[in-house]
Structures are given as structure tokens and as C-alpha cells.
Protein 1
Amino acid sequence: MGEDVVIIGAGQAAAQVAASLRQGGLHGSILMIGDEPHLPYQRPPLSKKFLIEGGAPESLALRAQSFWRDQDVRLVLGTSVGSVDVRQRRVLLHDGREICCGTLVFATGTRARALPVPGVDLPGVFSLRRIDDVRRLRPALDSARRVAIVGGGYIGLEVAAAMRSEGREVTVIETEARVMKRVTGADMSAFFEAKHRVRGVDIRLGARLTAIEERSGTLVVHASTGEPHAVDVVLVATGARANDELAAAAGLACEDGILVDEFARASAPLVYAIGDCARFPSRRYGRRLRLECVQHAIDQAKAAAAAILGAGEPYDPVPWFWSDQYDLKLQIAGIMDDHDSAEVNGDPATAAFSVEYRRAGRLIAVDAVNNARAYMLGRRRIAEETGDGAR
């Protein structure tokens, strides 16, 4: 006997689509498959509070075990999927079990981007995507004095801030000419670079990691610029790639993510994809987007649940993100990567200001530091200026 809905993945998006299906009135069976042994949990704290304070994995759980039991959502955890037949909607687990379903949802998320660099598999070199990554990394950090972070994006800088708060020496190696280049503009990059430098972080821009080697219990980091650098721990934080191989092998259309329409439907009937692994069309921004953020995972999961239940509406959000570094809260609304003008509002010296990004006169993104009002108003204006009436 098959399942009515099978969800591959057990992260934020998977948890939300299951909960929303029940809330929307689905009475059929729901099965969620996760390759980690943990209940669906929050990931943002992994590079922030959970890294610093630790705690039990259950402290990150989105819902208690009792919630899933009460909602009659069956969880198969610590088990990975080997293959999928999307035509027959059959899922084959690595342990040999075969599961049939009526509707299939891919919520497979992302994984740390691998670096083709000698030495990245040495003991003392880590990535940070899962609870178990933190559980391995934290003991190494406890005995470390010097930490190298490869990558100057959100995660890299959040960990840098956490390590400096603990008094450790931190070096950030970034290939681009500025930090957080993929997600923010030059003014905001310069602000955060200066804040990290004044707190003692050694930021090396335009530097590409070329090798890591072990010498008498110490890791030596080699980059394309500067002298080799001896450290105790290396964190590779060079971004993530979509877990779309399973979908691609099943014949679904993929392009750095599983391609879906505005209702989260993939390229086969009764198959959906949501969250970090999905690339969806945005009329608002005139192209397909693949977003890696909590709110997108939640909202697209809700949209997919509605579509599965026959009441869907096109999904085209104003994306939003956040990052906590030291006493700085960066909130971002919109996508700024093809803006043609940027305007700073307020004085960066006060550490409470915003930057507005426009394209052809329309507001497409806002970055705000310690300024929730600018962020909220900006998000509302972006929705108005990039909505259907503005096109």
C-alpha cells in the first residue's frame, strides 16, 4: 500500500509543507524521509547561537516528536533515498525499501560546495551545514587558538564574529574583492569589512585557497596571495549547491536546482520541489531564482501545499534574509544583484543605516543595519514597485 504524499527531505520546507497539508485539510497519509537522524530543525543558529552555546540537537527542533505523531505525519529519519521513479512515483531507499505515493515532494535542500583543493579532507578542516557538523567542529574550536575561514559570505562572517567573541585569532580568505559580494552592495560590504577588521579579523581579499597541508599537528593554509598561514582549524564556508542530483537522475528538469513553475510543480505530473533545492520563476525580478533562506522555505512550502490541495496561487515573493554579526543585525529585502543605482540613508558611523537599490528607478532591494523600520518599509515598497501593477 502506498502513501498519499511522500516528502524527500526533512528540513524547514519539508516540515512546513507537511504541516500546511494537514492544516489545509488533507486526510491522507504523509511520509517524510530525512537522511539525518534528527527531527526537522532550524539551521540558522548553527553558525550563531548553537555554535557558541551548544546544547542538545532537540533544542533546534522545529516541532516536538509529539506534534508529528498528533498530525499523523510518519517520519523515516537517518535514511537516504537511492533513486526515484517519477512516472510511477516510486521511491527506493538505500536500505532496500520501496515506497509508492500519489504526490511526491522534493525538499532536498543544499550541501556545502566542495572545493577541489588538496588537503580539504584533512582532520581539522570542516564545513558547516548540519547539526553533526557543529558537533564535530565545536570540540576542535575549543582547543584552537587560530582559525582560518575560507569564504567571506554570511556563514563565514558569522562564524568569524563568534570566534572573535571567544578571543580566537581569525583569518578570512575570500576570492572576491569584497565580502558578501553575492548578497549585498559595495557600501554594505565595506561597512562589514571595517567592523570585522576593527575587531581584529584578518581579512584577505582577492585570495584563492590553493592548498591545505598538515605539518606536525598544525594546518598550513596556502592562498594565491600572501604567505602560508599556520592555523589550528579551517572552516570552509564557500557557499552551497542544490541537492538536485536525485531529481536529475529521475529525469526532472534541473539547472542548479530543480526547475519548478509558479505553483512549485516540477516537470512531471504530481511532483513538486520546494525550498533551497528549487529554482522558480519570478515575474517580479524577470528571471528564475533559487533562494537559500528560512522564509522562502516556509512560504514556498505553503504555496506548494495549497497547490497540492487544489487551491494554489502563483508564488512570487519579495525575498528577505538576515545575518547577525557582533551587535549588528543585517536585514535584507529583495535581490540587488542587477541594480543600477544605490543610495545610502543614514550614517554608517552610527551603525544604524540602510542602503536602497534601484533598477530603472524602481526599488528592488533594501539592506538595513540595526534599522528594522527601514527594512520593513523598504520591503513594503519593493512589493509595490515590483508587483504586477508596476510592470
Protein 2
Amino acid sequence: MTELLYAPLQIGDLRLDVPVVQAALSGYSDWPMRVMARRHGAPFTLCEVMLDKFLVQLKERKKTRHFLYISDEEHPVGGQLMGAEPEQFSAAAGRLVEAGFDVIDINFGCPVKKVLGKCRGGFHLGQPEVALEIIRRTRDVVPSSTPVTVKLRRGIDDSQQSVDQLHEILSGCQQLDIASVTVHGRTVEQRYVGPSNWDFLRQLKLDFPDLTMLGSGDLFTAADCLAMLQQTGLDGVSVARGAIGNPWIFSQVRALLAGLPLPGPPTIAEQRETLADHFGLARELYGDQRAAIPMRKFGIRYSAHHPQHAEVRADFTQVRTVEDWQQLLTRWYQGDGPGAALPADLHKVQADVTPGSS
């Protein structure tokens, strides 16, 4: 067995053999996406963020079962929560534990305006007392054997006050037995504009050496993941937008972490197999009448790997039915041939994707 260049990632009692995980992605990281990431090498994934109020009131119905759907092959898997009131937040955390999630993740990182306006997500970075009360109540209600983790950004803005508030929350995390934290290198004010500040993440790890810390932001390729580990000294990294339509990023980063050459882009045949598997999982979860629409956004992102990506992307935007999907695969993914390398400016190409939890 090839020895990895980086240590496994420890989150509570969970030992992940590689320190690269898939982030929670609002509107994306449903069961099919998580399973595809796991099959391609992700050691751990997170479900899309759920509101505490929604989760507490959620009834077991066919149209909503996908929110809490977990299969045996994807363990360990984390459930992510976002909300405003500490009491309701902890009740929702208990619901995630009952559903079978192995880790409960608290979202203090979402920068979306409508979320901030309702005192959720990144809003809590500006009120450490409330944030720590949410963490405390969540940790109290979740069994001690279940890790509780926290997702944050590096602050509301670039002010010293924001840095101090972040430090106060992280100090509290250490005292409250939080298994790990993931810090996005942009501020809430930045949203998705401008670079993720990896230098800030490096200093933050130096300030909190005993806190298991993952980084996020600007991770679009396997090389990006390795670079963040090297430049920051973090314990792990969490891949968000870079994993949408690109489950191969996890097998590629495994190769780099083992000191092997970077694998080439997935071939046309490999892409077809993955697209077919992903769509099959979507049909299983959503049914034939509903599967094509949520899968369309994934197909658009998968198209970046195709040599004729502009034409393939345009066709994916027109998909409405199972038949449309199958015809597209027949048209563009028959036979085999080399795939396309992802463009160097992928972050610009994918700028239209702004998952709420990233």
C-alpha cells in the first residue's frame, strides 16, 4: 500500500483516510451527489444545509423524503443545520441524529442575503454569544458519540472586530468539545467575490493549533486541494463548488496525496458511466417524473469535461425528461475518446453557482 503524504483526518472518533471531504452544498449535495463522491474516493460528505424550523416541522412524505435519505454505502455522512434560535436549532439537531447522520454540522458560514436577513448562517459570526449558545445546546442534545462540527467564514468583513469575534467563537468551540471546524477563506461580505484568503487560514491554524481545522474556498482541482494543505498547514480541506459535476476530484487528489502523477481527465466512456450512474440514483430517489430537472444543473457542470463542452452544455440546458437525458448521452457520449482538462479559469466559468452553504 502506498503511504500517503498527509495524515488521515480525525473528526471525533471518525478516522478519514484522506483529509479531503465534500462540503455541504445547498441545492446540490443530495443523496445522488454524495454517493457519486463516495464512489470516486471522498471519505466523507455532507448533505445540503437544512433550516432548523423546516426540519422540526418536516413530515415523512414522498415529496420530502430526499432531505433525510441516507444509504448504507455513504456512511459516514454529515447533516448540516442552519437557523436562528438556539432551542429550535438543538431540536432539529436531534432530528438529524434520529435520521442516522454520523456528524452534525452547524452552519455559521452562509453569506446569502435572504439568509442573513433572517439572522441565520453567517449572521451569527457577528454575535458570538448567540453562536456559542447554539453550539452549546446542540452539543448537549447530540449524543457524545456523535461529533458536532462547525462551518464558518473568516468573519463578517475585514475588520479587526470580525477577527476578534471569530477567535471568540473558535475558543468556545475548543471548550465545548467541537470535533472540527471548517473555515471558508472569504468574509460574509465578500460572498463569492475575490480570492479566498489562504494566508488568513494559515495564521488561524497557528493561532489554534489544537483545534482540528479544515479550509474551504477556491478548491476547483485536485492540485488546489494539495496546495491548500501545503500552504496553510490545515488538517484537511472541504471541496464545495469544485465537486459539482466533478466527482473525479476525489480520486485525483488521492493519487496526488499518495505521491503519484495526476490522473488524466476522465475519458468519454468514463464520463458516460458516471453520468448514467448519477442519473440512475436520481431516478431512484426522485422518480422518473422529477429526476431530470434537478439533474440538469449537474449535467451542465459535467459538460466541462467534454471536448465539445460548449455544445454539450447547451444541450444539457434543454433537458426536461428522462428521454431527453438518454438522448443526450447517446448523442454526445457514445464510444470513447479523451476527455478535456478543466479550464484554468474554472472559478470564473462556475461563478453562476452560489450554493448557500459554501
Protein 3
Amino acid sequence: MEHRNFKPLFSLPVIVAALGYFVDIYDLLLFGIVRKESLTALGVAPDMLFSKGEFLLTVQMTGMLVGGIVWGVMGDKKGRLSVLFGSILLYSLANIANGFVTTVPQYAVLRFIAGLGLAGELGAGVTLVSESLPKHLRGYGTTIIASVGILGAVAAYFVSEWQPWRTSYFIGGGLGLALLITRVSVLESGIFLKTKEKNVSRGNFWLLVTNGSRLKKFLGCIFIGLPIWYVIGILITFSPEFANALSIDGEIRAGKSIMISYLGLTLGDLISGITSQQIGSRKKIVAVFITLTLAMVLLYLYMPVKTETFFYGVCFALGIAIGYWALFVTIAAEQFGTNLRATVATTVPNFIRGTVVPLLFLFKFTRDSISTNMAPTAGELDAKNSGLIFGALAVGLVTIMIAFIALRSIDETYHRDLNFEEEDS
């Protein structure tokens, strides 16, 4: 009878974590949606929109990389709730301030601060829910968080369609501040409170990197998510540029591509989360979705039908293929003991988001190299388009290969009891 009781899935920690991630994704993806509109309003020339957009995305993801460590350590030292309150307050205020920017440098500073704040939301929420739910419901709980949260991208798109870009930032920040009220009634994780009473090192990041076995699992947790943010950070964010290179009929807008792909990602998260619960395995489902991602990347870059409808359809299919985000974060939370769980669950998704920075550099290097080599014979425009496609293909194949290798280094954690600690060695 216990396994048929789904009532805990509708508890306050699950609801609040899901709504928090909704606001998190809204604010995280809003920049990509309003990138061209906001930069144009700040006086950026049309031929500089791509490079300035890359720069600001890199700054934002760097903030998330730093924030992942800060909030993760704090989550294990001070508690899961302290991170949920602190992170949402920081990124809400930063996004309200984003609505007042008048220069690109101001924009960059505030995107860094926003990224710093956004880094704490998901890991703390998933850790709290994973420790609050019985083990036969953990996968369902994190699937609800991811599926509801990812719809924040859809909300960001429609708000940006109805409101100016500055107002869209104000709304995101306001939603975050309103969410703080709901968190007053949420209780701290009982598992964490028990660990807090023990004489054990909590939130010690060095325990992850100085032990070979833990380091291998930690890196494995990070790298299985590489294809997800390759798709989001490169293929979807810069979809208008790819559509132009592929000679797609009609106007492709980044905001619409993000919205449609995140609808697919929501569906993919539901499918992967529920399926993993049904077959009793996380790793097998992740392997299936990485394989599906490879197929969809090839379809995207070598699109046989050059219509706007087909292009957006492939964006939706790409979203489904990378829809193992909930499993990815769940696996990270389940790999390690309570004294390191928030550190891992917070750093892993932000490290993988932060990999957009080196991926963008690698993408720029490969596309520029290919374009330069092809320009003398193919012409400047054709060389530029070919560089874009072949550069994206090269980076994509590398991320998928690394993800498959990383999957072998982590444990199957479906049946694992989370009430344990890591030793100080």
C-alpha cells in the first residue's frame, strides 16, 4: 500500500520547489528570448548582436558556475532552506535591476549577479525534496519539479511577446519576490537536521576532489549533462543564425525556438522520469535519451525540409531528446551522502550550465577555423555558413561522446537509501 500512496508528491516542499524552479527558468532563459530586442535597444549594431549575445551568455553562465559552488557549500553547512531564500532574493533583485540597464557593461554585471543567484535554486530544491520523499517517490518528485519549472521558459516567451523587454525583467523579479512568501512555511530536511547534530564535515568541496572514487562520480554526474546545454546554449539560443545558414524559409525567432524546445523538454522530462521509475533504472533511460539527442542534432544540422514549421518541429524534438534533465539532477543528488548532497546537487547542474562557456569558445574556434579555410574557394558567405554548421557538429559529437563515457563512471541509484554520510577522507 505504501508504494500506491502518492500523497507526499503534493506536499509543500514539492510545490514550492517546483514553483521556485519555474521562476528560476523564467529568469534564466529570458535573456536568450529578449537578446536581440534588448541589445538593439542599447544601441548594439546588427552585425554585433551575435558576438555581444555570446559575451553576455558567457558572463551569465560564469556567474552560475561560481554560484554553484557558493550555494552548494552553504546548502550543506547552513541548510537547504537558507539557499532557497538567499538565492531567489539575489536573482530577483538582479533581474529587476536588469530592466534599468542602459549600457552593455551594466547588462554584463547584472547578468553575472543574476547567474550567481540563479545557481542555488534547483540544487537546493531537488536536495530538499529528495530527502523529504520516500525513495519510491523521489524520481516522481524531481520530475514534477523539472516539468513544472521548465514551463517557466514558456511563460517567459509569452510575457516577452506581450510586454517590452524591460517589463519582462520586472515581472520575473517580482514573481521571485512573491515566491519568498510561500517559503516561510517550508520545513528544513529532517535528514539534514540529523546530520547537522553529528561530528561530520559538511559542505567540504575538497572531499569531492581529493578522493579518486568521489571525483570520478562527481565528474561523471557533470558530463552526462553536456549534450543538454550544448543543445540549449548553442543550437537553440542561436537558432536564427542556424536557420539563416540552413536557408530556412520564413523568419526564425530565438524566443519562439526556446519556448518550443522547452515544451519538448517538459514532455521529455515527464517521459524519462516516469519511465525510469517504471523500469527501476536511471542510467538505462539516460543512455536512451543521449542516443536520441545525437539523432536529433544530426536532423537539426542537416534539415531535409527548409520550412519554418519543420524547423520549429525539430526544435521541439530536440527538447524531448534532452529531456533527461530531471534524471540528471536526481542522479547527482543520489550519488553522495547527506553532508555533501547539496554541494553536489547544486554544483553539478551549474557546472554543466557553466560548460556553455568553454563550449562557446570551442564553437567559435571551430567555426572560424573552418570558415577561414573555406573562404578562398567557397566565398565568404558560404564559408561562414559552413563553418557554423560543421563547427556545431564537431562540438556536438564531442559532447555526446563524453556523455556516454561519463555514464559508465556513475552508480545506479534508483533503490538507494539517502540517509548516509560521506567519510572525511
Protein 4
Amino acid sequence: MADTYDLIVIGAGPGGYVAAIRAGQLGLKVACVEANDKLGGVCNLVGCIPTKAMLESAKYARKVGHLEEFGITVGEVKLDIAAASKRAKKVAESGSKGVNFLFRKNKVELITGWARLQGKGKVEVETKDGKKTLTTKNIILATGSRPKSLPVLKIDGDRVWSSDQAVYADKVPATLGIIGAGAIGMEFADVFDSFGAKVTIIEAMDQVLPLEDRDCAAVVEKAYRKRGIEIYTGARMEKADVKKNGVTLSVKTKDGETKSLEFERVLMAVGRAPIIEDIGLEKAGVKTDRGAIVVDEYCRTNVEGIYAIGDCGRPPLLAHKASHEGIATVEFIAGVGHGGIDYGNIPSVTYCHPEVASVGLTEAKAREKGLDIEVGSFPWSANGRARTAGESDGFVKIIRDKKYSEIIGAHIVGPNASELIAELVLGRHLETTAEEIEKAIHPHPTLSEAVAEAALGSLGRPIHI
């Protein structure tokens, strides 16, 4: 019964590999099937991890011009994006090796190949040595997602990049057009601007970072424009001409003017699409809707014993959401009990400069729902630690419900937003009130004090503004 398992996980990204490890911890006989010869999925190989490594390099590239303010004088500075890309790849490879180690530690069998469902409890894997059929009690689909193109402009990997090509660029294009001002577009705008490209961002919605709080988005847009990044919001791309030495885009602006924009390279950052093709969904009878696998609150599909987690199922398409679903689903399968997934308390982060992080409702959404709210906002310019770091743009915003004083939304734009949001995620999970956050003593001088001050602001009594 060598090819019989308690669980087969298809995909070794942040959802799949975490699910497989948790299954191993619980004593299940588990196999993880991965088409790539390196583990970690898009997140580790070409997404979250190497992108953040590039952003770290971009931070130093950007700061070097301001070191004299801190009493440091440097000589001639040379920016080398190829070296930064090499470092990013090394960081990604380290993460991939780490997943391999964790698989061995937790007795997860790794099978390299393309998996297809063959009906109830059966998975066919096409490996380099041929096909073999595996039998299992449960299957978790964690196949991830791929970059989207637009009808008028397709990703070709040469003149028109996806994030896959942008993350390991070996040279900086003189001009870069970025289609889409979501997290991916704004992060790569930061990277390439920092390394010397002339960057232009084109966004169809009326603000950058369309899913974020409008006030946070405005801070980022202002910072980017100050850096010389050109931004068109409320703009529609009408035509594209990909030539041997560049790309010409015809863009209709929100004022109705049609502009012809020339770029050496274009980055397509209009979102990602679930990978659900050629994995046997039709043969197994698994339902899909609008290009994604249909699941319930326990990540169950309509077919008994088949689950779907991460990007191939419900949104949002975030690595930490996929990992959490992996743990919760495996514990549900094992009968351990988990308590479910709170989809209303998933944090979102954009790691550009300034950083943006949020959880819960935006102020606009809360008002749209007719909630009786109080909003507290505390600027970084009034925080001592932010001023010492020279990072005083932005704020912390907390939205509380007046009746119970529970935090229904929190938004941070500025230094270390990605780390600070965790306090508010935990607070919301524990149904913390604004008063409780304020009463918890925050160390001084720290950025975290701004969280307490924003809580005080939502109560109408901030101290330092």
C-alpha cells in the first residue's frame, strides 16, 4: 500500500506545504505533489520573498542619498539591480531548501510531477518517469495562481513583463510603464524607481491601492509623485503596440484626453488568476465559478473528501490566508477542531515606501454600511520614534464602533506598518475595545505608541496632537 495515503496535497506553495506539514505533525500519512522542482510556490520563488528582498535593496538605494542628514558622508554610489536580483534569488532558494527540510522532519513524502484528479480518492501524477496513480482518503487542492494579462496587451516575458520577470531583472529599463496600482504594481514601482527607472503607473480605478483606505492611498500617491513617479488614476488603456524596442500604450485619462505613452518595458500588474486547468476538476465533478473552485467555510468543495485552499479557491489571494486555510483544513480533516477561519480579520499589506497595512473595514465601507463609528487618526509627525528615523509621513487610523467600542477597522500608512498591524489583528480577534488598547502600556519611544494614540483619538482624547 505504498501509494495509499490519508491525505494528498496538490501544490507546495504557502497553502499546500503548510497543510502537508500540519498533517505530518498530526500523524497522517501525507504526500505533497508539486510540479516545480523547487518548493515554496509563487510566494517563495518569484513572489512574496524575493520581492521583499528587492524592496529591501530599494530601501537602501533610496536612503543613500539622504545619509548626510544622519551625519554620514559617502562617496560615489553605484546601483546594481542585477546584484540585488542575485541576492533575492539566494534568499528565495534558502526558503525553498527550508521547506524541503521541514518535509523530511515531518515525514511528508514529496512527489514531483503534475497531478490530476481521477475521481473519488484517486490522483494521477505525471512524473518524468511516467504516470502513477495514488489512492487517498482526502485531497487538498493548493494549486495557486498565475499573473493575468489584458485583452489588448498580453504578457510575453520580454517587452511585457509579469512580476515573474520583474523580480529577477538583470538591468533597469530607462522607462517602465506599470499597468495596475494594486500591491504588486506599487511595490515594483518602488523598486524600479529606486534603481533609476522613469516609472509611470496606470490604474483604472480612481485611486492607487484601490482596496485600501482612501486616506492611506492618498499618502502613498503623494509620496510617489514627490519622487517623480507619474500616476494616472481613473485611466483606461485602449490600445497597445508591442515593438522590437519598446511598447506604445494609448491611454484615455479620467479627463477624457487620449495620451500616447512610450516605454522600454511594461509590467502587467492587474491581478492573478487561479490555476484550475488540467487538474482533473471536470473528471472529479468539482464545481467552479468565475475561474475559481467553489468552497464552503471549511474549504470543502462539492465533492466529499476534496478541499481547496489558497489562491485556487476564494479570495483574497494572500499567502498568509492560504497558510491559515491549510492548517484549519487539515485540523478539520483530522477531527482536531480549529474554530474556523475569520475571513473578516485577514490583514492586507503593501510593502512599498511608505508601507500600507490594514485589517477590517475602511472608513468609507463602515459609513456605507450605516455603522455608528468614531475614527481616530494619529500622524507619524507627532511620534518621536518616527521622527528620529526620518519617517514622518502617514498615520495610524482606528475605526471603532461607538456602541461597544470594538475596533471594526484599522489602517496604517508609514514606517513598519506591516509589523504594527499585527497588534490590531490580534485585538480584533479578541474583540478588544479601543479603551483596552490604550490601557495596555506601549513602550516609549516606539512606533507602537502611535497605535495607542490612534485608539485614544477614536475616544476623542489623544494626548500628543
